[in-house]
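Hi everyone, sorry if this is the wrong subforum. Our group has a chain we'd like a structural model of before ordering constructs, and none of us has done structure prediction before. Sequence below.
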Amino acid sequence: PNAPRPAAAGGSGELSISAPFNFQHHVHVQVDPKAPTGFAGLPPGWEAALNQAGITKEEVADNSDAIIDVLRFQFEQGMEPALPSAKQATMEAKLAVEFLQMDPASKYKIAPKSIGQGGMGTIYLGTNKQ
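Answer:
Right subforum, don't worry. Here is the predicted structure as tokens:
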């Protein structure tokens, strides 16, 4: 049972185990009317989330794809938004700069009363003049 350990690359005789990298967890979930949640093969935590949300077996039967999409988003993506592509980010930056260079009063009728405060100033309701 106490087999000799191979020496590490550094020669110290100690082995070190790194954390996993490029890990992917594949799950096969299917609709199962006999299962308590209406799904079979749910990963840990998903069943509890369904129960907490009060999602019934009937709702699972009617909306199984949408429910799985929400669960995947919640548990696998960790609520982190995907980064835009370089092309999309460039396009959005150009649109933002165009808007900032334009005088909003030239295109929009701006209400005299503000509707709130934003991070960069006061927010007013505007309607298109056209």
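For your construct planning: The helical segments are 46-53, 57-76, 86-101, 104-107. The mean pLDDT is 77.
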